[in-house]
């Protein structure tokens, strides 16, 4: 098992997951009044291109995850999914202008250190 390929595959899987979630968030921001009615679900959600792209990316994410489950030990790949937490926080900061406090940055450092120890 090549560590470089493992880390790269984990990063791509996490990036597609985050991209899918970001498109879902973008799409849901376009929904003005969410209700559990057929009209809202059809017009505001199913026909929403952001949600459609998000769902497609999540399908790709899950296919990549299935590949990872087949090829790599679960005890290594599952903890590496925490890379998604880091990418998600950075996307929230850059794309949505969310506040990131210093304790969150400490968490990012700890997560990345944990990933390093897992692959080491």
Summary?
This protein has 120 residues and is mainly alpha-helical.
Key terms for this structure?
single chain; 120 residues; mainly alpha
What does this protein structure show overall?
The protein is 82% helix and 0% strand. It has helices spanning 3-29, 38-46, 49-71, 74-80, 83-96, 102-119. It is an all-alpha fold.
Chain-wise SSE layout:
Blueprint: H1 3-29, H2 38-46, H3 49-71, H4 74-80, H5 83-96, H6 102-119
Helix pairs in contact: 1-3, 1-5, 5-6
Largest sheet: none
**What's the SSE pattern?**
HHHHHH
Beta-strand content bin = under 5%
Taking all residues together, what is the mean pLDDT?
A: 87
Radius of gyration: 17 Å
Number of helical regions: 6
Query: Outline, from the CA principal axes?
Result: flat
Instruction: List how many beta strands DSSP finds.
Output: 0
State the end-to-end CA separation.
12 Å
Q: Low-confidence stretches at least 5 residues in length (pLDDT < 50)? A: none
The helix content is over 70%
Specify the structural class.
Answer: mainly alpha
């Amino acid at each position: 098992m090549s560590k470089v390929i493992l880390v790269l595959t984990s990063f791509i899987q996490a990036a597609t997951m985050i991209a899918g979630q970001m498109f879902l968030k973008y799409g849901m921001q376009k929904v003005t009044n969410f209700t559990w009615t057929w009209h809202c679900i059809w017009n505001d959600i199913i026909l929403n291109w952001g949600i459609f792209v998000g769902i497609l990316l999540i399908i790709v994410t899950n296919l990549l995850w299935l590949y990872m489950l087949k090829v790599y030990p679960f005890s290594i790949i599952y903890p590496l999914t925490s890379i998604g937490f880091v990418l998600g926080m950075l996307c929230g900061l850059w794309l949505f202008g969310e506040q990131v406090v210093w304790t969150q940055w400490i968490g990012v450092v700890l997560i990345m250190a944990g990933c390093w120890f897992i692959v080491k």
